[in-house]
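User: Please predict structures.

Assistant: First:
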Amino acid sequence: MSQATLEEVVPAPQLRVAAVSRRSERIFWSGLCWAIAAVVFAGFSRTYFLANYFNGPPLSLLVHAHGLVFTSWIVLLLVQTTLVASNQTKVHRKLGMVAIGLVVLMVVLGTTAAIKMAALGRSPPGAPPPLVFLTIPLFEMVTFPTLIGLGLYYRKRTDYHKRLIVIATIAISSAAVARLPLSIMRFGPPAFFGVTDAFMIPIVVYDFATRGKIHPATLGGGLFVIGSQILRLIIGGTAAWEAFARWLTSFAA
């Protein structure tokens, strides 16, 4: 359809409003993804990205592999949002296939690293003891691929797709949030879960501003993440979980 024909069907003022709406949408999602990336960098700067400048301990091969793969996900997210913003949808779809393999690696390495760190008796500052803390990364290795899988399933429904992918990324960013040099982090998991979940507030506000109500993907994905966090807090200190965690970490000793 030519521009003249399109303007005959849709008045020029409405076309301009639609163009502004699309630009605003791209700015919002790109800005949110860059904000998540900034938090991830800030959280892991002392222990990973800039560890040499902070005289951090030597990093094992497993930690390097884990950091590389998870960083690759953040980079891929930024690339994908940039491609969408520049209307490079074909390239965006092709890179979506790369995401599948990357998610599998993230789950394998994330699970392995979590168990290994717990076996070594390590957890972030302000976090509960390692065996209790183990619930947090292990549950993330369930919530993250579940939301990503739903996002890929709804890849033709872009409104669902982008919300599920971004919320999945927000969920795993709690590891970076927990390492931010903020005094509130001394309160442990409730604090860094709360700060992490705050990244979903802009999505809710955006939904109401653009749709007049919360999007089903925002509601479902958000409740799924928050519900999993509450469940972790409940079971993390139980005797049954401690016994399971001791058994699990015995393989990494």
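Second:
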Amino acid sequence: MRILVTGGAGYIGSHTVRHLLDRGHQVTVLDNLSEGHRAAVPAECLHVGDLKDIDFVDHLLLVHRIDAVVHFAACASVAESVADPAKYYRNNLVHGLMLLDLVRRHGIRKFVFSSSCATYGVPQQIPITESEPQKPINPYGRTKLAFECALADYAQAYGIGAVALRYFNAAGAAADGSIGEDHHPETHLIPLVLKVALGQRPRIDIFGTDYPTADGTCIRDYIHVEDLAVAHSLALEKITPGDWQAYNVGIGHGASVREVIRIAEEITGKTIPFQECPRRPGDPPILIADAQKIRQELGWQPRFPTLHAMIETAWHWHRQHPDGYPK
């Protein structure tokens, strides 16, 4: 397939681009490099631009004869979305709708959307199935849900085959250590913990120690970034024009913040100091996926099912790239 990957120079996008190329697809990457990195994708694939530039995106779709889109480009910080919801509605929803209209105009029939378990909010049941009511509790989750609704309606009305992958907490890095996670500022737990191990931060902050969990800290379902990449590829291959599907992508069991720190200490051989802090707004206590649907319907199976393997590959990347990608 000839695939446009928006946000393809970002963390999950770059791993997906590599996997799609390995599968023999022709990949065009669109990224404004606000979060992504040139060094994360092959130079010949990368086109630097913004989704809001309709003419530029229209040109890419036409010249590269795109027949499928994988849409990652979005803002993705819960805390920032609470502080600046306008940025999230503009980037995640408005610009996404502009892309969808171009997809419709060009007759593209395959669209995979990078969604999130944040659309569920505080779930009524654990593990979370795709039938769980979607009641997001922060602007980030609400923008992801709003775009899901639009995508489902476009699929039904205009014959677009669409899949939303609601994934849980991405972690890890490429097994060969060549690409990994590099955000500025960094907000994700595992890379922050590893920066403490590298001596780049004095400690890790634990936000909330009074949650209704065994050790009082939040529990999350971590999924290796390369397993996420495979999920996107499988979704593209199985999409049927006019059909809409949503899939959870997670391992099916969770780890608390304290457990992440403990495993990171085992892998790095370093003591990782921490500081207990008040809860952050918008953080559900427990998020664990029921991923049976994607396993059964798409044949997806994780290659890195343990948190130990995820942190180990992440540590390999961070040791080789202590300052991240070349600036």
